[in-house]
Every structure is written in C-alpha cells, then in structure tokens.
Design a protein that fits this description.
Blueprint lengths: L2 H14 L7 H74 L13 E3 L29 E4 L6 E4 L4 E3 L1
Antiparallel strand pairs: 1-4, 2-3
Helix pairs in contact: 1-2
Length: about 160
C-alpha cells in the first residue's frame, strides 16, 4: 500500500471512529494525519524534482559522450596536423637549402621564346616534335620569364611562348 492510500485510510478511520477536532484525541489524530498529508505532498514534489534531475543528468551524460567524441576527433586532427607539420618541416628544410626547388620547371620539354627565336632553357632543342598543338582557348598564364639572350622580361602567353 502506498503512503497516499495509507493516509486516506487513516482519514477514513478517524471519521468512522468519530474522532473530530472537538475532542483532544481527535485534534491530535487529525493534526497528525494533516501533517502526514503535507509530508506526502512534499515527497511527491521531491520525487518530481528527482525525476527531472535524472533526465537532466542523462542529457548531460549524453552531451559529455558527444564532447568526448569531438575531443577524440580533435586529437586525431591534431595528430594529423602534427604529422603534416613534420612533413612541412622536411619541405621547409629542403626549400631553405634549395630555394629554386619551388620554381623548377614543371614541363620537361624545352620552352622556346618566340621573340628572338631563342630557347629559354639554353640550347636549341634536339627534336622538333610539333605534334602537340594544345590550345586551351584561354588568355594564357600571367607569368613572365627573363630572356637569357637579351635579359628582357617577357610575359608568358600563348602568343609568345611555345612548348616543343
């Protein structure tokens, strides 16, 4: 039997035995039963508060789990960044010892300056492979090179540079 039913039973018992507030014993029993009724109301409030706190605690626990997952992801990213930093450190050391590394020719074929007819990389090419007529349809690249013959800076465009 739960406490609400027990308090109800006691109230009914007092009424059935004709204990009223008119007699000293009745006043005592009615006061005790009213106090128990107030306690039961407070117990219900505490139970509701405990239930709400339990729900909040579960939500917090779920959020902690998500934060732990995010923390693990961050640690993984930090490790990847550290690994990348090590790779960049190797690259940085290589660049410091050889700054021209970044500016080495990407095209393995010689580039011929149309202006002046001189090869920008030195001697004339040995082979005359003109089977690559790549036309990208664009305006060319906005880069310039220095002519080894006259020292003039020449913009690299489709009109004045040909790749052989």
């Amino acid at each position: 039997m739960n406490y609400r039913k027990q308090i109800g039973f006691l109230k009914g018992l007092c009424k059935g035995l004709n204990y009223t507030s008119d007699t000293p014993e009745g006043k005592l029993l009615v006061s005790i039963i009213d106090t128990l009724d107030s306690f039961s109301d407070e117990i219900d409030k505490v139970k509701d508060d405990i239930e709400a706190l339990t729900d909040d605690l579960q939500d917090i626990s779920d959020e902690i789990g998500e934060l732990e997952s995010i923390s693990e992801d961050i640690e993984s990213l930090e490790e990847q960044i550290e690994s990348l930093g090590d790779s960049l450190g190797d690259f940085s050391e290589m660049y410091e010892s050889n700054p021209e590394y970044l500016f080495r020719p990407v095209v393995s074929r010689p580039i011929r300056l149309v202006k002046g007819g001189e090869n920008a990389l030195g001697d004339s090419p040995d082979d005359d492979d003109d089977d690559d007529d790549d036309d990208d349809g664009g305006e060319g690249v906005r880069v310039s090179i220095v002519c080894p013959k006259c020292g003039e800076r020449i913009p690299v465009t489709d009109e004045n540079i040909s790749v052989e």
